[in-house]
Amino acid sequence: MDISLIVILSVAGALVVAGIIMFIRSRKAAAARNEPYYHFVCTGCRRKLRYRARQAGHSGMCPRCSRPCTFPAIEKK
Questions:
Q1: pLDDT reported for residue 23
Q2: DSSP string of 10-33?
Q3: Predicted TM-score (pTM) of this structure
Q4: Dist CA 27 CA 50 (whole Å)
Q5: What angle do CA 26, 60, 39 make, to 5 degrees?
Q6: Strands 59-61 and 48-52
């Protein structure tokens, strides 16, 4: 085989793989943008904090007072 053909096929393969990775990452980012935000108030400094639905029940930390908190469960309507 000619060396230039090998190089061309290698570059084409790398571009296909990079395109697939970018497509998958963009789908995940779009899903994250469409996820609603919920709010609660920090018990330490009374700052209004927001969190995503997938964070409900998990622990976090207030960015202002550094107090640990648990994101409240989402109330179903």
A1: 93
A2: HHHHHHHHHHHHHHHHHHHHHHHH
A3: 0.51
A4: 23
A5: 75
A6: unpaired
Distance CA 53, CA 71 (A): 9
CA distance to 14, 41, 53, 56, per residue, from 69 (Å): 44, 10, 15, 11
Go through the chain and tell me how many residues it has: 77
List the Cα angle 38/39/40 in 5-degree steps. 140
72 neighbors 55 (Cβ within 8 angstroms): no
CA dihedral 8, 11, 17, 22 (to 10 degrees): -130
> Which residues lie across from 50 on neighbouring strands?
39
Per-residue pLDDT tens over the stretch 25-64: 888 777 667 778 899 999 899 999 999 888 889 999 999 9
